[in-house]
């Protein structure tokens, strides 16, 4: 019995194309001989495409992408300060537009310290947690505005929008994940200052918690959470938090676990109404683009999240095992982006 | 020529009274024999006072405090989850009310790695930076609201308010501080997502920068900044940022520099219209209150910031030198809160 899935591939800018090339290589290796076949369509999107055509993401692009089963994305963003990009916000207009339009309300960001990977922490401990970041609300909604722009009397507001509907669905998902892990859930917010949004998040967590008596629940203010990220990250299992706090915490999580080059993520629409999107947490890093020095591991691990989501956990497991084996053998060796992809693909093929 | 200043002392909750006792001890030791005399008035405020009287901060309290030259504050906040505190937000009603009413628009939070103090980072390097956190705007303004509270249709909004007036005054202050340090200023924001507030902050920094050609300026997204806090904190000199990002970054800064027990802060009204307020960054930590195990160093270092602000830099320097000497001699010894204060006060007296 064979199954074909349609994958939209957005390589994007900077190191995006390089790391996606390796992710695709690994994906091809792991589906080879399996009952899954992947039918890829390339979408040329990002700062480069904008500079060429003036388009960031057209309705036609969006419709075409939405007709796929899933999306693999590299990285988006031009050279910081490029004056030609001043009037385009590629992040809002492309990356966030995809997340919002495709209702990616679960932004899943696992963190793990790999044996042999040096952490900036003296004693990271046995770190293995996942941040469940809300993806469609909060301060990310773009509901801001400004008056008297450019004058000394300017006022610029940003509105964080939080709904019971939006909070409940992501909190529920986080509890489900906790039951598949170590049954611990930490809500991170800033309830003592952002009291309206904070009360809503706290109420929903309390309510949903009654349905999951096996899950132990605690709460941390976001500032205190950053302290524990560096003093005792092993204490965390599942963290559920809003869009902005999740953004901040997952970069920090990537850093303490030995580098943003290992941090994978999934933007999931659990309802299946829209395709989910898989991407490394890192950005386009234009300063090192084209040099074959970017670590493609985060992009490769994102394909494991993709395979899991496509209902092929055994294939996902093979990718993870190959990455684990490759990381264990790294020992500080300097390899090109392609060499890392080759090595992981070879490990997968050898284990088949 | 002698000079007397009126100091309002708010010991507060939890470990607040313990650490303030040591801060006052050190303050008394350092002004002894100097031309400065400090006339202290105690204000019993905090969760304990609220539970007794039902008052958080009355207009009479506020007026009385405002009539002082400066404020020394310990920590505010009851036992988390105390049902009797559910309807009172002591943080908003007291701490933030003081900061906002007294127009503490510069929240100054220096970070330094002391030789001999273990950092959770394997290799912290020569860390010595100061975060200039805006204190009267941003997501802290309390301009949120919610509808259909408690129902599945609830919507809870939080508004971040940013004005050219408010941003410019704190940015200008940060540039001034940079010129007294290593002439480096980093703006931290999230301009790619919070585009309205982000454009305002970036514009003001660009404009003020033209008046400070000797200061080199860069920009980091808040998520990226947390990465550098753990991978290369020595790169920072002065960071200027908004109220919420500053809150998050300074807890992280405290953690990487060897503990929030060393992190001092000043809430400054540079215009001098209102008294400035000096407080440790740490909270009331009710779990360890009354045990004499809290580190009073952050509160003591806050008195150095206070003395600086009162125009007595040589006295401030004596406090800092005594703390430096004490920290260098610590060597992991376990001392009570009072013993740390005694040791630092004795070092000051001996050096006189
Ligand atoms: C590029 C940016 C809009 C994005 C975000 O803030 O979500 C990125 O930082 C991330 O974490 O995926
Ligand atoms: C207690 C709380 C309101 C406060 C803040 O968020 O500013 C604290 O975290 C701080 O950093 O001083």
Automatic annotation (TrEMBL), chains A, B:
<keyword id="KW-0963">Cytoplasm</keyword>
<dbReference type="InterPro" id="IPR023698">
    <property type="entry name" value="LeuB_actb"/>
</dbReference>
<comment type="subunit">
    <text>Homodimer.</text>
</comment>
<feature type="site" description="Important for catalysis">
    <location>
        <position position="190"/>
    </location>
</feature>
<keyword id="KW-0479">Metal-binding</keyword>
<keyword id="KW-0028">Amino-acid biosynthesis</keyword>
<dbReference type="GO" id="GO:0005737">
    <property type="term" value="C:cytoplasm"/>
</dbReference>
<feature type="domain" description="Isopropylmalate dehydrogenase-like">
    <location>
        <begin position="6"/>
        <end position="344"/>
    </location>
</feature>
<feature type="binding site">
    <location>
        <position position="109"/>
    </location>
    <ligand>
        <name>substrate</name>
    </ligand>
</feature>
<keyword id="KW-0560">Oxidoreductase</keyword>
<dbReference type="InterPro" id="IPR050501">
    <property type="entry name" value="ICDH/IPMDH"/>
</dbReference>
<comment type="function">
    <text>Catalyzes the oxidation of 3-carboxy-2-hydroxy-4-methylpentanoate (3-isopropylmalate) to 3-carboxy-4-methyl-2-oxopentanoate. The product decarboxylates to 4-methyl-2 oxopentanoate.</text>
</comment>
<feature type="binding site">
    <location>
        <position position="133"/>
    </location>
    <ligand>
        <name>substrate</name>
    </ligand>
</feature>
<feature type="site" description="Important for catalysis">
    <location>
        <position position="140"/>
    </location>
</feature>
<dbReference type="Pfam" id="PF00180">
    <property type="entry name" value="Iso_dh"/>
</dbReference>
<feature type="binding site">
    <location>
        <position position="223"/>
    </location>
    <ligand>
        <name>substrate</name>
    </ligand>
</feature>
<dbReference type="InterPro" id="IPR024084">
    <property type="entry name" value="IsoPropMal-DH-like_dom"/>
</dbReference>
<keyword id="KW-0464">Manganese</keyword>
<keyword id="KW-0460">Magnesium</keyword>
<protein>
    <recommendedName>
        <fullName>3-isopropylmalate dehydrogenase</fullName>
        <ecNumber>1.1.1.85</ecNumber>
    </recommendedName>
</protein>
<feature type="binding site">
    <location>
        <position position="99"/>
    </location>
    <ligand>
        <name>substrate</name>
    </ligand>
</feature>
<feature type="binding site">
    <location>
        <position position="251"/>
    </location>
    <ligand>
        <name>Mg(2+)</name>
    </ligand>
</feature>
<keyword id="KW-0100">Branched-chain amino acid biosynthesis</keyword>
<dbReference type="GO" id="GO:0009098">
    <property type="term" value="P:L-leucine biosynthetic process"/>
</dbReference>
<feature type="binding site">
    <location>
        <position position="223"/>
    </location>
    <ligand>
        <name>Mg(2+)</name>
    </ligand>
</feature>
<dbReference type="InterPro" id="IPR019818">
    <property type="entry name" value="IsoCit/isopropylmalate_DH_CS"/>
</dbReference>
<comment type="pathway">
    <text>Amino-acid biosynthesis; L-leucine biosynthesis; L-leucine from 3-methyl-2-oxobutanoate: step 3/4.</text>
</comment>
<feature type="binding site">
    <location>
        <begin position="283"/>
        <end position="295"/>
    </location>
    <ligand>
        <name>NAD(+)</name>
    </ligand>
</feature>
<dbReference type="GO" id="GO:0003862">
    <property type="term" value="F:3-isopropylmalate dehydrogenase activity"/>
</dbReference>
<feature type="binding site">
    <location>
        <position position="247"/>
    </location>
    <ligand>
        <name>Mg(2+)</name>
    </ligand>
</feature>
<keyword id="KW-0432">Leucine biosynthesis</keyword>
<dbReference type="GO" id="GO:0000287">
    <property type="term" value="F:magnesium ion binding"/>
</dbReference>
<comment type="similarity">
    <text>Belongs to the isocitrate and isopropylmalate dehydrogenases family. LeuB type 2 subfamily.</text>
</comment>
<keyword id="KW-0520">NAD</keyword>
<dbReference type="GO" id="GO:0051287">
    <property type="term" value="F:NAD binding"/>
</dbReference>
């Amino acid at each position: 019995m064979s199954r074909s899935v349609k994958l939209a591939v957005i390589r994007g800018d900077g190191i995006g194309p390089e790391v996606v090339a390796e992710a695709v290589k690994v994906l091809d290796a792991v589906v080879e001989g399996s009952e899954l076949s992947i039918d890829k369509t390339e979408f040329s999107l990002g700062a480069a495409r904008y500079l060429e055509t003036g388009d960031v993401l057209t309705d036609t692009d969006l419709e075409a992408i939405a007709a796929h089963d899933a999306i693999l994305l590299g990285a988006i963003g031009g050279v910081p300060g490029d004056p030609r990009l001043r009037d385009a916000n590629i992040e809002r207009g492309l990356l966030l537009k995809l997340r919002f339009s495709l209702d990616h309300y679960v932004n899943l960001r696992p963190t793990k310290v790999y044996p042999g990977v040096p952490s900036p922490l003296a004693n990271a401990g046995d770190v293995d947690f996942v941040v469940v970041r809300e993806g469609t609300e909060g301060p990310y909604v773009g509901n801001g505005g400004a008056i008297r722009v450019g004058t000394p009397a300017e006022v610029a507001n940003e509105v964080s929008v939080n709904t019971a509907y939006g909070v409940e669905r992501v909190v529920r998902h986080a509890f489900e994940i906790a039951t598949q892990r170590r049954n611990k859930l930490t809500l991170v917010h800033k309830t003592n200052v952002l009291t309206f949004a904070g009360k809503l998040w706290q109420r929903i967590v309390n309510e949903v918690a009654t349905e999951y008596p096996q899950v132990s629940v605690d709460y941390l203010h976001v500032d205190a959470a950053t302290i524990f990220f560096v003093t005792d990250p092993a204490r965390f299992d599942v963290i559920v938090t809003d869009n902005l706090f999740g953004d901040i915490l997952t970069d920090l999580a990537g850093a303490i676990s030995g580098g943003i080059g290992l941090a994978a993520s999934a933007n999931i629409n659990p309802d299946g109404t829209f395709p989910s999107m898989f991407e490394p947490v890192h950005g386009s890093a234009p300063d090192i683009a084209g040099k074959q020095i970017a670590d493609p591991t985060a992009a490769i691990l994102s394909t494991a999240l993709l395979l899991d989501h496509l209902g092929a956990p055994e294939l996902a497991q093979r990718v993870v095992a190959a990455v684990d084996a490759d990381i264990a053998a790294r020992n500080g060796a300097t390899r090109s982006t392609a060499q890392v992809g080759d090595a992981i693909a070879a490990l997968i093929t050898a284990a088949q």
